[in-house]
Structure formats: C-alpha cells, structure tokens
Amino acid sequence: MHEPTITLTNVSKKYVRQQALAPLDLSLDHNGIVGLIGPNGSGKSTLLKLMAGLAQPTTGSITLAGKKITRRASEHIAFLAEIDSLYSSHTVKEAIQFFDGATTDFSREKAEEMLDKLKVDLHQKIRRLSKGNRARVKLVLTLSRNVPILLMDEPLSGLDPLVREDILKMIVSYVDVEKQMVILSTHEVSEVEPFLDYVIFMKSGSVLLNEKVETLREERRINLVEVMREVLQ
Amino acid sequence: MSLHFDHNRPIYIQLMEHFYRKICRNELKAGDKLPSVRETAVEAGVNPNTVSRTYMEMEREAVVVSKRGQGTFVTEDQSVIQQLKETTAEQQMDVFLTTMKQIGFSEKEILDLIQKRLSALENGGDSNA
Q1: Nearest-CA distance from B111 to chain A in Å?
Q2: Domain locations in chain B?
Q3: Helix extents (H) in chain B
C-alpha cells in the first residue's frame, strides 16, 4: 500500500536567537490520526510549518516520499493554520471557489455537502460568521482537499466544547484513515485521546515520545494524560 | 451520543463490551447489520481504526460475521449468542464474588443476601436496578 512518508533528518529551527526546534530525527509513515501534543512554546507549530514547507529548517532536511519538501509541498499537504486565514469580505461560497481555484485537488461537492450538514449558510460573509462557524468553514476547506497529508495547527483552540466536539467528529467522518494522515496539534489531551492512532509528545523543541496510543494503553495500562505527566515532567 | 471510556483500558475492548451488551440484551438481534465502521466511529467519538479493530476481534470470536461488500452482521448462530450471554454473566459474577469475599462474606451469606435483595426489589422496595 502506498503510504505518505515524511522523514526529518537532523532538523532544527532557529528564529533569530531563539532555538525553536532542537536537532531532531523523526519518521512518520503511518496513516491515521496523529496527535502532536505539548505545552505552548514546545515547537508544535514550528514542526508543522516545516513539514508543510511554509518555513525552512535551519539545519537538516525534510522529505516527503523521498523528495525534499519546499513550498510546493502544498500539492500533497493541506495545512490548517491557527490564525484566521480566510478573506473576511468573501462569502462562504466565494471562499470555497477561492480554495477550489487555488488547489488542484479540491472537491467543491464535498465542501458544500459538509457545510450543508453543519447548517452553515453559503451566502453569509465570513466576517459575519460566529467564531465557531469560522472554525467549521476553515476545517471544511481543509478536509475537502484530496491529499495524503493534512496538517492542523491547533484546530480546537479557543472554541467552545460543542464546536470542539463537532470538529473532532468531522475529522473522523471525512478523513480516510486508511489512506490519509492527519497530524493535529493540541494541548487538550484527554479530549482528543479517543480519536488518536498515534501520539507525539514535544517539549522545549524536542520530540520526547512517538508511539501508537493503543500500545501505550496495552503496555503501560495508563491513559495519555498520565503518559504526558511522566514524559513531560 | 459519545460513549464514555475508561482511558486506562484499550478502547477497542470497551467498544466490544458495548456491542456484546447490546447483543445480550437483544437490542442487536441475530442477523442484524452493525452500523458501518465510520458511523460507529462518529457516534462513539473514536477513531475509525479503533472501530475496525473492534469489528475484527468480534469476528475472530465468531460473534459477528462480515460479508464482503455488505457490511458486518450479528451471527445467526443462536448457540454463539447464548454462549456470549453466559460468558458475560460469569465475568460479572466473578467480579461480584471477588468483591464480596474481599469484604468478608462467606458463600452461604452471599447467597442469602442475593435472595433477600431480589425479593426486596421484586416488592418494589428499592429500585437501584
């Protein structure tokens, strides 16, 4: 089976004086949902941006299926930014058209079907949407791309519990876990735990653990919150 | 409706128990079709891979049968369902008996207490059931 493989070799990132990522090696070659977990400032966003080709590593190299990752990685990787990334003057429908034009693998039918299920009005302006609906629209636009890798930077942050549940259920409903890999960063460990296949714990720019969640439960008989306490202490 | 899971135990096992209970209660009858993997994942609030594993384990234990291109069905074999009920009941009784012995009751006392409790419940006295 074809699997998307992201390989990081000796990758580090320095912003002026701040070391955002220590040199690290990491290989991701499994489909399914991966939780990237760690406290604020641990390097989660930096790692995702490097994998998406949106930032350049200071040292080392990152490859996707053997090819070096550049800005053009967006052909195979969808990226959900934490910041507001939609034009506020667009209507929802125009935002869909914009994404459809900007990417080659976008499914408009899928986007409209999802938004219909979520009861989001396509003619509403982005700026008039509630925060929860803006988050839903952003997620729909990401999930409507037919790409092997979806990177989501803090898709749950700042949202109320009902919207967060909606977002997690949408990911489960629309991601093909046998063919796609989703990496989502969060610090809401217990909330995402049942949805994860794999977990990566980060602290101070280093990856401390990269493991299958079910293995952790079977071998250590403890939950992710406890694992996190052990690993991050 | 999301199910509540004990995060210290593998979720696929807890999901199996959830289905087995439904089958024991006859909420899922012999030959009934199970929801698709994705439907169950969304309903229970878990990863679809976890649900696949649950379905595979239940199939290995012959409680469900998967038919190519059609889905997963509860077995039509009544003896398997009867066996499942008995095993589930035994497990529950073992847990109960262990607890009762730990708090110092003899087997005779346990039996008496059960009978007392059952007749009290029958008379509608206390409804903890």
Answers
A1: 34
A2: 11-76, 79-122
A3: 11-24, 37-44, 48-60, 78-102, 107-122
